[in-house]
Amino acid sequence: MKNVVLILSAAVLTTFVSCKNEKPTTIIDKPETEVIQTSEDLALVDANDLNAETSTQFLYVTAPSGLSLREFGNLQSEKIGKMPYGTKVKVIDLEENMTMNVAGIKGGMDKIEFNHKEGFAFNGYLSKYFPPERDITAKGYVSELNKFFPEVLYSETNGGSVTNPSNTQSITLPKAQWHEAFFMAQRLFDFPQEFTFPNPKGKNTEVINDGKPKKGIWVSELQITRDDNELEKIAYVYGSKQFDTQVTIVKEGDAMKISKTEVVK
Question: Per-domain residue ranges for the chain?
């Protein structure tokens, strides 16, 4: 009997020592520095990323033939790149002083980043409004602009008579310049590229004829109205046997207004 007790005691002691030496199997907590993100946290992170993106200013190339990127902030500096029409560029340093005049467009040299290169570009051909894509409608274009610029307005009215109905589409661009509106209208309403932006300096009234009108177009001309070397109105007028159309650009307060009126004959 004594032997049995000794054997049982040894077994218990062995088990106790074994359990004491065995590593604990409890789950170790993660370091306090690790943060488990909730959906609210993720939403906050996304918002911060968005704020960082929107705090950076971007502009778009509006020059139909593209814009040169230069090594230094003058027009005589070496060209280090060519930015096609519609290119989105990051602004590093915005030049607010209009110290230059290129073909009647006033501006300065912004320091920008394009294709991983830093350089300078004439900001008279840069706009905060991204240019319209080919074949997009005026209404569709403003709808795209409104995602970023809700203050841009579009309106459309119908009039005329039963036999000669008319349609007018209008776009209002707050704080835009004449040349911005001109390039936008030229692209949206497809008037000839040979018509370059008219210089504000010149005769009070001027008419520039289209040297190569499309087949079937009877009239195709750019009409310019000035007052004391300041633009008052730019109108592209064209017509055929079927219709008469006029695209006008005027300044209203601090906004530019583009309108297209088409009358069916």
Answer: 58-127, 138-264
pLDDT by residue (tens digit) across 94-133? 998 888 999 889 999 999 999 999 999 999 999 999 999 8
**Which residues, 6 or more positions from 203, have their beta carbon under 8 angstroms from its beta carbon?**
226
- pLDDT score at 23: 43
The encoded tokens of residue 150 equal 């809700």
What does pTM read for this prediction? Answer: 0.76
Assigned superfamily of 58-127? SH3 Domains (2.30.30.40)
Residues 6+ apart with CB under 8 A from 197: 103, 104, 105, 178, 179, 182, 183
Query: 22-57, pLDDT tens digit by residue?
Result: 444 433 333 333 333 443 443 444 444 444 444 579
